[in-house]
Amino acid sequence: MKTLSLAILVVLTTVMGAWAGGKLGTNLCTPEPLFAKLDADRPLAELGRDLFYDPILSGNKTVACATCHHPVFGTSDALSLSLGDGGTGLGPARRADPQNMPEQRIPRNAQSLFNLGYREFSVLFHDGRVEKLDNGLIRTPLGDIPDDGDLAALVALSAFPVISPDEMAGHYSENPVAKAVRRGVISGPGGAHQILADRVSAIPEYRAKFDRAFGQGTEIDYRGISAALAAFMAFEWRADNSAFDRHLCLGEALPPDAAAGLDLFYQKAGCGDCHAGRFQTDHGFHAIAMPQLGPGKAERFESHARDIGRMRVTGDPEDAYRFRTPSLRNVALTAPYGHSGAYPDLRSVIRHHVEPLDSLDAFDIDRVKLPVLTGADDFRILASAEETQAIALANEIALPVLSDAEIDLLVAFLEALTDRSGVDGRLGVPQSVPSGLPVPGR
Length: 442
Description:
- This protein has a 4-stranded antiparallel β-sheet. It has a two-stranded antiparallel ribbon with strand order 1-2. It has a two-stranded antiparallel sheet with strand order 7-8.
- It has helices spanning 6-19, 34-40, 42-53, 65-68, 152-157, 165-169, 176-183, 192-201, 204-214, 222-236, 243-250, 256-266, 311-314, 346-354, 356-361, 385-394, 404-415, 420-424; strands at residues 87-88, 95-96, 123-124, 130-132, 137-139, 145-146, 285-286, 323-324.
- The chain is mainly α.
- α3 (42-53) packs antiparallel against α9.
- It is 36% helix and 4% strand.
């Protein structure tokens, strides 16, 4: 198959036309207009790069955004579930620090950050708890905020990892940020965000960078920090020049196995039903009987380890165990897979989609990539027949029966979605950051 079949092109055109406001015939290969603005406003992205790699934004000044989202690991960390505050090292080498033990793992797999500057990425996090609404607002865990720009959802997202005790804030009473979070004081005077902004403002090099990015003397607040982080992520990690893109936009032939895999993906296997559009996601939520690992998504006063996904946002029982469909760009570089990082490679996660209930029932915990954390009961849910049955009953997908050879073809197509330049980024990892703290991976 040397060219995209007419049926597949119609599907992609329809989806992308809807994304662009219902204008059929939209050019699938037209660059996102936002990128020209980001190119012209490079000082903002450069400021965001420093902040992204700087541990100054964590309560104990030991964790940066890049700790769990590093380009070496495809903007993730190659772990099923991350260790944030209280961990040392990077990626699979990360370990619990015996001098500051984590209370628990981060409950969900660290997602990749590709293409978040494209406007279609308007629903963020595994459960969509940051989401552009139709009423001109963005829903967030801290309440609705105005949708006031191309990157508004991504700006909103950037406010939350820094106030998560397990990710970046640190645990109760061990630093001013953690204390503010514990009191529920996030914004305003004495709030966690203001404490972080004051830290940044006290560093002369950041003051100069904010002046270049926002204008001389502009107040350094967390909104500005979030805007810079969002601009950097959108500017840095565009994965839109893969073999698939060149096939779609320039007519370049795919390798034979990838071409056969593309045909299988959009036709017999039905993967395109959910992994639709240019970036292979419908941005919807689906229950696929994914095994649950780790502490689950629970409040501190709750004792369970389950993660009911989208239902935590909507309160609708129909949304139990549904999670957002991930984009598949650079997916070959971002293992492990699933909201809990349950599957270590593409073949195993595809096989789960084919036989979700059998896969859940026979799940092999020995393949999970979890750093040792003393006292962690990571497989509580899998050990409970009641809990696993609830996950199984919510399942809503199963692919047609696929042979091992067909799964290999699907893998070949997924590998054709790799854009190596999108991983390397446009600015790269800085040698140092203005705080003088260690840069993850340096």
